[in-house]
Amino acid sequence: MPSKNQGPEADIPGKRAYTSKTINNAFNDFLRLTGVSRKILEKYRDALHEGGEQFSKIFYDYLLASPATSKVLEDYQAGGGKIENLVKRQLQHLWELLDGNIDDESAKRMAHVGEVHYRFGIEPVWIMGAYQLYLNHLQALIRGSARIDDAHRRGLEELVTRLLFRDMGLLLEGYWDASMWALKEEKDKVARLQEQISSVLANIPQLLWSMDVVNNRPLYVSPSAYQICEMNIDMPIPCLNWTLPEDREKVKNAWHMAMGGEQTDVESRVQQPGGAVRVFRRFFYPYKNDEGRVVRIDGLMEDTTEAKVMVDRLHTLATTDSLTGLPNRTLFNDRLAQAIAAAARDSKNEIALMLMDLNHFKEINDSLGHQAGDQVLITVAQRLHAELRDSDTLTRLGGDEFAILLPNIHDGRETVERVMKKITHCFS
């Protein structure tokens, strides 16, 4: 809540025409209270104080008549408060109002009362109801009391009515300022929270987004998205236009699956603004309404380039000879099993397996060193590979031993003899 020395109007939402320093003068001017003699109040103060007990009973019944106000009173009593003290306080407030004080201190006091009403959840409509009770009670006194001269009744009633309006207006102003201050604090809290969330999301490598598929508009896109692609041309699928053309179809298929209510993911290559091509995995999470219709798709886009490179590297290490780059024994055995299975299904399909090693290779290692021996093995692998088909498999089994698999051939013996001559010729 704002302090009594500093009004909230400089910080609360919306521009106010009056400040805490000028609102009192505004009320006094609009209600024509400035310069008005209040001697008539002094003259009839005792008459206006009559019927205090009757007013207390009316006010007490008013508080208990509405379920909303009675609930507030229950909470008040549960906290140790007493309703009779509230009623006495209202009666005391009525007598203070009849003093006719309209200075700035009285205005500040009423604004503070408004703040208290807001803090305890007392609605403005209940405040206005209470002032209606004040007005009804005072009007009845002014019009019926034998202690008031007939010539003064109208003027006295008009002055009391103006004072009541000033009092109620200042109290509601305090209520308004307190509620606006609370609203500003809540908005500031939300803004700080949003800033924190945006900062967190901007600091993580994943792209998060949410799409309203009914109205085809983005609900949220994390700040990191703009480091990957221009989002304004890519909806509804983030970064689709930056995806390599040959990968776009499978991304669209995954999106259509999500639109059908199925959670899915897909990996594709994306060209970033700087020109680099990265591999991203998109995750699509559909959200359905009560009727079972997909109304929103939440998504995550993650850079998997390094992971894919690592997987490819591990696969290469597991299936490739590190010296020659040829398939190793593990991969060769797998391809041999596949070739045998294919030949078993088709009697016309034959396979050939050729094994070879290098004569006197140990002498090269012993005389010229292992580095020279390694270069010989690399050169042998290159020459052998040049004489084979793309469908053939050349493997280094280890040391100076090589194997050649010739799948899907016809007239196997003739084919093998022809390949042997090519191999012998390439080393002549």
SSE topology sketch:
Layout: H1 23-30, H2 39-43, H3 45-48, H4 52-65, H5 67-78, H6 83-97, H7 104-119, H8 124-144, H9 150-203, E1 207-212, E2 217-221, H10 245-259, E3 264-271, E4 277-288, E5 294-303, H11 305-319, H12 329-345, E6 350-357, H13 361-368, H14 370-386, E7 393-398, E8 401-409, H15 412-426
Antiparallel strand pairs: 1-2, 1-5, 3-4, 4-5, 6-8, 7-8
Helix pairs in contact: 4-6, 4-8, 7-9, 8-9, 13-14
Low-confidence stretches: 1-13
SSE arrangement, N to C? HHHHHHHHHEEHEEEHHEHHEEH
Strand content: 5-15%
Q: Helix/strand-derived class?
A: alpha+beta
Could you tell me the number of beta strands?
8
Radius of gyration: 45 Å
Q: Looking at the structure, what is the overall shape?
A: rod-shaped
Fraction of residues in H or I helices: 55-70%
* Terminus-to-terminus distance: 98 Å
Mean pLDDT across every amino acid position: 84
Largest sheet: 5 strands, antiparallel
Largest sheet, spatial ordering of strands: 2-1-5-4-3
Explain what the structure shows.
- This protein is 55% helix and 15% strand.
- The chain is of the alpha+beta class and 428 residues long.
- The protein has a five-stranded antiparallel β-sheet, with helices on both faces. Strands 6-8-7 form a three-stranded antiparallel β-sheet, with helices on both faces.
- The protein is rod-shaped, with a radius of gyration of 45 Å.
- 20% of the residues are buried.
- Residues 1-13 have low confidence and may be disordered.
